Amino acid sequence: MGEESKHVAHCLVLAYPAQGHINPMIEFSKRLIQRGLKITVVSTVSFWNTTTPHTLKSLSSHPQNIQVESISDGYDNGGLAAAESLEIYKETFWKVGPRTLSNLIQKLAGNNNPVDCVICDGFLYWALDVAKDEFGILGALFFTQPCAVNNIYFHVYKKWLELPLSESEYLIPGLPKLAASELPSFLYDYGSYPGYFDIIRNQFCNIHKADWVLANTFYELESQVVNWLKEIWPLKTIGPCVPSMYLDKRLLHDNDYGVSIYDQNIDSCIKWLNDKPKGSVVYVSFGSMAGLTEKQTEELAFGLKESDCYFLWVVRDCDQVKIPKWFLETDDSEKGLVVTWCPQLLVLTHDAVGCFLTHCGWNSTLEAICFGVPTIAMPLWTDQITNAKHIKDVWKMGVRVDADETGLVRRESIGNCIKEILESEKGNEIKNNALKWRNLAKDSVDEGGSSDQNITEFVAKLAQLCS
Ligand code: UDP
To answer: What's the confidence (pLDDT) of residue 467?
Structure first.
């Protein structure tokens, strides 16, 4: 008699429709597939439609055979951009999303592909109502932000940290003492972003239903806060969700990382970097969402030009109009290259890159850590402010620009930071720290490392519960 075929656990991985959310969740999915799980990655119809044409093709033709499915946010033609406001978008999505997720789980069951576990983005916490209450299957919350920031937001959710802020300094368990201005910006400007603040605060409202809480970070990077949170959550650190083969600088194709919502200028970037001296280029990017003001764009342009360094600057299409005319007219493509989007991992792992001037989005921060690239922190909003504090003062792998009393970062500050990293003695110390973190990141995902072990435990428990 033949052996009964073993049940392979099927996880549905549901990502909030944004670049910084989908990338780590896809990378995590690949690690689960490597360990024999069946994975279906889900986001919204509108999101998949906005990714570049090769994205879906590259996922479904990926050697690891990643299945892709959709739910609806109520705006299948256009997503958030088609809604009147984020608040209205959220309200619609939160109504339509659970219903369409439920339909999807039923459809998959009908196709002989039943779902055993839903791993949902913390933003889409309502997926746990569907998984646990409606289908009685397993559920995990996946946080795409660092544990430091999750803990701060959790304190706000629990009202252990009262808003509006009234203290000048805050002591939150597991974290260094933080000035009010070092907390995520939503804690002091939440009135300007009620929709986002609401989503962020409510990430925790279903945490009691979660069988696991998965965080895209690694133990060694945030050990104190992880230890504290592990006492109250079923927490597992499983990051950095950055392809581990890049940690060895053995580059694979760009399609091996996440998805892309913008067309990349792969060849032009890499060709341009190829003949630059080792460690000489400042890579400048502010991620996929936030944009600089026109005035700030001009100061940055002056800062880069006057520092006389090589620079590769990503200015998304929607922000290109802010680039000053004089800069474009005097553009010296030998010294600086401006692109609308780039293959960030290929850039960060390129030997020519000496530092990363970043908005400190969590993925960009982890990517800099993974490749040991020293950073110039220029945070704009949300968790970026707290990430910048950690980069400079806790991990000591970067410097931070200063803003003047109007909030503008002047060209002098940008120039000084570039000099400090690329030319000063302190810059060498920072580079060494960046390399130290790189090694720890690599150890954590290598066989037997902290994140690797956590993933092994997660998969084993899942197999046990689903058998
Ligand atoms: N990214 C990219 N090309 C670019 C700029 C960014 O591929 O030119 C990727 C980057 O590697 C990261 C993501 O976009 O994975 C941005 O995420 P992050 O959390 O840093 O910032 P967000 O976009 O969420 O503000």
So the answer is: 81
Q: How remote is the CA of residue 100 from the centroid of ligand 1, in Å?
A: 28
246 lines ligand 1 (CB under 6 A): no
Instruction: Determine the distance separating the centroid of ligand 1 and the alpha carbon of 375, expressed in angstroms.
Output: 15
The one-letter code for the residue type at 29 is S
Three-state secondary-structure class, residue 182: helix
| CA-closest candidate to residue 266, choices 284, 254, 276 | 254
Cα distance between the two ends of the chain: 20
**Which atom of ligand 1 is nearest the CA belonging to 339?**
8
Residue 448, C-beta contacts closer than 8 angstroms, at least 6 positions apart: none
How confident is the chain (467 residues) per 10-residue block, as mean pLDDT? 71 95 93 93 92 68 77 96 96 98 98 96 98 98 98 98 96 98 94 93 97 98 98 98 68 62 80 96 95 97 96 95 90 86 91 97 97 97 97 98 96 98 96 97 95 97 92
Q: Is the CB of 27 under 6 A from ligand 1?
A: no
Question: Does ligand 1 come within 6 angstroms of the Cβ of 20?
Answer: yes
Identify the CA nearest to 314 among candidates 265, 385, 376: 265
- Parallel, antiparallel or unpaired: strands 375-377 and 353-358: parallel
Nearest 10 degrees: Cα torsion 41, 361, 446, 233: -70
> Which ligand 1 atom minimizes the distance to the CA of 342?
8
Distance CA 275, CA 352 (A): 8
pLDDT by residue (tens digit) across 393-417?
Answer: 999 999 999 999 999 999 999 999 9
Among 19, 270, 311, which residue has the most ligand 1 atoms within 8 Å of its CB, making it the best to mutate? 19
Ligand 1 atom having least distance to the Cα of 358: 20
Active site residues: 21, 121
Between the CA of 402 and the centroid of ligand 1 the distance, in Å, is 23
Helix then strand then coil, in percent of the chain rounded to 5, is 50, 15, 35
Residue nearest to atom 2 of ligand 1 (CA): 344
Long-range Cβ pairs for the range 199-204 (8 Å, 24+): 199/90, 199/123, 200/123, 200/153, 200/382, 201/153, 201/156, 201/157, 202/125, 202/157, 203/122, 203/123, 203/125, 203/141, 203/143, 203/150, 203/153, 203/157, 204/122, 204/125, 204/153, 204/154, 204/157, 204/158
**Nearest CA owner, ligand 1 atom 24:** 20
**Threshold 0.90, pTM exceeds:** yes
| Ligand 1 proximity of 288 Cβ (cutoff 6 Å) | yes
Q: Interface pTM (ipTM) of the complex? A: 0.99
How far is residue 41's CA from residue 70's CA, in Å, rounded to a whole number?
A: 8
Instruction: Give residue-wise pLDDT tens across range 319-346.
Output: 999 999 999 887 677 899 999 999 899 8
